Amino acid sequence: MPVESFPQTSSLLKIIINYSTMFEKQDDLLARLDKVFTENEKALLKSFTSSDKHDYTSVLLPIRSVGVQGDARTYSFAAAISSNDENPNWNELFILARMITKACHQINRVVYILGKKILDSEITQVTRTTLTPD
C-alpha cells in the first residue's frame, strides 16, 4: 500500500467517527460509506457518533501494523479512538472498530486510548520503517 494513502485514510476515519454531523454536510466520502455499510450499520453509526451521546475523536497513527492475509504479510495503519467517557461502552466501541476496518481497508488495528480525549493530530506522513533479520 502506498504511503500516499495516509491522508485519504485519515480523512475517511474522521468522517466515520463524526458520521452524524458529516451526514448532514453530505461530504463526498459519504458516498463511499453508503456502498460499504448496510442501512442498519448506518443507523448504528449515526447513533454512536451523535454529539449528545458520545464525543469520540480519532487519529490515524503513524505506525504500520502487521497482518497476515493468505501466505503474505500485510502492513496497514492503526487507528486510535478516544473520548472523555470515564466508563466507555466497550460493546459500542467494538462495533465501531469493526465498522472502521470494514470501511477503511488500509486500517487493520483500532485501539482505544484511555484517559482524556486526544486532540486532533497534525500527522501528515508516515516514516517508512522495516524489520531487519536481526
From TrEMBL:
Top-rank taxon of the source lineage equals Eukaryota
Domain (GMP synthase C-terminal): residue spans on this chain: 55-117
Q: Which InterPro entries match?
A: GMP_synth_C
Matching entries from Gene3D superfamilies are given as: 3.30.300.10
Q: Which GO terms describe its molecular function?
A: ATP binding; GMP synthase (glutamine-hydrolyzing) activity
Parts forming coiled coils = none
Q: What is this protein called?
A: GMP synthase C-terminal domain-containing protein
Species of origin: Rotaria magnacalcarata
